[in-house]
Write a structure and sequence with these properties.
Elements lengths: L31 H13 L14 H18 L13 H4 L4
Helix pairs in contact: 1-2
Length: 97
């Protein structure tokens, strides 16, 4: 659910204290250089890339709303794409709902 901006009354593109979802990729901005590097590593580089940063820094948003939509777009265009991409939410991995 989007919250209204206090100044304009228009919906805010920031999802609050949760990661962006894939269907919110059009709202995810400012990380295109990092997405490009991850995409380059995934398609042309190493078999495994490790994304490590502080809690709350946007790792999940980067993968889910940045990298994943670009990989799907490339696959739809029949471009080189890694055969498998596995994303698991931490809460789901821990058995939380």
């Amino acid at each position: 659910m989007k919250t209204a901006s206090s100044k304009t009354g228009t919906p805010s593109p920031w999802p609050g204290p949760r990661p962006y979802r894939e269907d919110e990729a059009h709202l995810f901005r400012g990380r295109s250089d990092v997405v490009a590097q991850l995409l380059n590593d995934a398609v042309y580089g190493t078999r495994i890339s490790l994304l490590c940063a502080e809690s709350g820094s946007g790792k999940t948003s980067l993968l889910v709303a940045g990298l994943l939509p670009e990989l799907r777009r490339r696959r739809a265009m029949r471009m080189d794409v890694p055969p498998t991409l596995v994303l698991r939410e931490w809460g789901a991995a821990q058995g939380d709902t």
